[in-house]
């Protein structure tokens, strides 16, 4: 268990860089770190400079914390996240979320690259995360950190309904089609077998990925409101003889869709200030 003092030390290191009215943080997932280029940065801090922060090792994760403005709105952006499959504990995977809470963050925007397991989901599609299924260890297992939240935190509104409604309207206004579905959090790092893809769809999943869910659970424990979006980067429901999952192609497809997702995030965040 990470001691509370470590979260405080990381927050105190970052506090001088962060404008007092900053209330939105963004986690940019695989390939989506390029969205950080839309942020007018006042500071770009490598994770390795922040006390107790893990190091991001996944493909497409630059490992920087960007502090600045997104179309005039103050934000903190994680240019890359931490994953259970990298060998980190769940406390390490979610370390930044608790630091954000100490910095006064009220809204967490999470993004990821995901495999579509619902037929009709195509590469390049966007999916608003309406709910999730957690097949990773729960990050709240262990002694409760009462400084952040209660022992048994409610997850019936894991993804904020008001933010989802706003995002759906923004999508209509900008003519950006989006699905709304259930994201399944899976350990990785190997991609799923055809049978596993089928199973995950049968149990209610629309998209599958190796991240996001632990961050959301900890955010809700901290009473931070969450909005999540997936970019569909591969289709997990057809398996011709020549079909394989390719990590480099996932990054390529995520980058291609980052512009659309960026417009949604930018407009939604602007509505909160």
From TrEMBL:
Enzyme Commission number, as recorded: 2.4.2.1
GO cellular component terms attached to this protein's record: cytoplasm
Keywords associated with the record: Glycosyltransferase, Transferase
Superkingdom of this protein's organism: Bacteria
Pfam families: PNP_UDP_1 (PF01048)
Enzymatic class: transferase
Binding site for a purine D-ribonucleoside: 192, 234
InterPro entries: Nucleoside_phosphorylase_d (IPR000845), Nucleoside_phosphorylase_sf (IPR035994), Pur_Nuc_Pase_Ino/Guo-sp (IPR011270), Purine_phosphorylase (IPR011268), Purine_phosphorylase-2_CS (IPR018099)
Gene Ontology biological process terms in this record: nucleoside metabolic process
Record: residues binding phosphate: 30, 61, 81-83, 113, 211
Record-annotated Nucleoside phosphorylase domain positions: 25-270
SUPFAM superfamilies: Purine and uridine phosphorylases
Molecular function per GO: purine-nucleoside phosphorylase activity
Annotated pathway: Purine metabolism; purine nucleoside salvage
UniProt keyword Transferase, yes or no: yes
Function: The purine nucleoside phosphorylases catalyze the phosphorolytic breakdown of the N-glycosidic bond in the beta-(deoxy)ribonucleoside molecules, with the formation of the corresponding free purine bases and pentose-1-phosphate.
Family: Belongs to the PNP/MTAP phosphorylase family.
PANTHER family for this protein: METHYLTHIOADENOSINE/PURINE NUCLEOSIDE PHOSPHORYLASE, PURINE NUCLEOSIDE PHOSPHORYLASE-RELATED
SUBUNIT field: Homotrimer.
Record's protein name: Purine nucleoside phosphorylase
Organism expressing this protein natively: Porphyromonas cangingivalis
């Amino acid at each position: 268990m990470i001691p509370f003092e470590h979260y405080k030390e990381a927050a105190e290191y970052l506090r001088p860089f962060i404008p007092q009215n900053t209330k939105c943080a963004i986690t940019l997932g695989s390939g989506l770190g390029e969205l950080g280029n839309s942020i007018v940065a006042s500071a770009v801090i490598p994770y390795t400079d922040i006390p107790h922060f893990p190091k991001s090792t996944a493909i497409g994760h630059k490992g920087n914390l960007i502090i600045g403005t997104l179309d005039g709105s103050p934000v903190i952006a994680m240019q890359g996240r931490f994953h259970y499959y990298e060998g980190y504990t769940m406390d390490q995977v979610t370390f930044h979320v608790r630091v954000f809470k100490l910095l006064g963050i009220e809204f967490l925007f999470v993004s990821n690259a995901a495999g579509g397991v619902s037929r009709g989901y195509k590469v390049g599609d966007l999916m608003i995360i309406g709910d999730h299924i957690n097949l990773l260890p729960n990050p709240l297992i262990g002694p409760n950190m009462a400084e952040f939240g209660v022992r048994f935190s409610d997850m019936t509104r894991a993804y904020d309904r008001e933010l989802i409604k706003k995002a759906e309207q923004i999508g209509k206004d900008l003519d950006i089609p989006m699905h709304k579905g259930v994201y399944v959090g899976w350990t990785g790092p190997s991609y799923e077998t055809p049978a596993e893809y089928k199973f995950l769809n049968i149990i209610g999943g629309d998209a599958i990925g190796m991240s996001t869910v632990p961050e959301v659970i900890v955010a809700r424990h901290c009473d931070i409101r969450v909005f999540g979006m997936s970019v569909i980067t591969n289709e997990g429901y057809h398996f011709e003889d020549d079909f394989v999952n390719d990590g480099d192609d996932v990054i390529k497809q995520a980058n291609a869709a980052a512009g659309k997702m960026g417009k949604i995030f930018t407009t939604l965040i602007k509505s909160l200030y």
